[in-house]
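Late entry, written up from scratch paper. The run itself happened at the end of the previous shift, but nothing got recorded in the book at the time, so transcribing now.
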Amino acid sequence: MTAPRIAANPLPYWSRDGAGKSKEVFAEAFADFAAIGYTAVKADVPDGMAPEDYLDWIGGYGLSPAVSLFSSAFDETVDIALEVERAKAFGAVQLALGLDRIMVSSLWVDARRRRPAVGADFSRDRLALAIENCGIICQVLQSEGLRPLHHSHVGGVFETEQEISALLDQLGPDVIGFGPDTGHLRWAGIDPGPFIQRYADRMGGIHLKDCFPDYLDPAEAAEQGYVELSRSQRLWAEPGRGVVDFDAVLAAVPDDYDGDFMIEIDVPSIDSRYESHRIAFDWAREHLPVP
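Output as recorded:
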């Protein structure tokens, strides 16, 4: 990898109104990203498209592939043998794109989809099984030639600081690296700067987004679910517009960091996805250590 780059995740394009990961939806996102100035995009290859065709396609917009994400529940709801095969297939695509690392995230615990960011329905046995299963997947990905990085995400079995730390500490740096998400950490009540500092020597990627304060106090969420809060446009914010301490976040990024800085605003705070990503890019150019 040549790093750092300012990358973008097309999530707000394909997730709005059930649009899905179609070529038409991605084409709109890529055109916007190219016009704004992004040079890399999260590698989401549409079903049925060969990796080499995807490379040619995004290259036409002046974009290169950036680290993607493998998600699993990792708990008793999955067949780990099937997850291993799914991870191998996903990993093979990433390798074909020339990537050397992959983010790994946990989704979903049903109770946490209904009541997110507070560790709902915690189970010590579920957590232990999920850590074991995640370790299996990480070792498989490593054997395929990819560096696995844990990616924090509200709604999964690794949601709270206690759970994320248990995963990283028990598996250790030889099994799993670190690819934090500043917004998901903050929503879960974790101060991103100090937490990133704790695991900075394992860091291989990062997603940058901000949070408004409106729903960070669980009492203010009023029993709203993950989807309702995300769609409120008062949860996720473009970097610099919310309460995440990005000075502390960037101070925690090691000098030899070799990953990308990926902008990811799950649901933009304004209606225009183009303007949301332009605002984020302008902030990134001003604040990030990129050439």
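Residues 124-144 form the longest helix (21 residues).
(Scratch paper discarded after transcription.)
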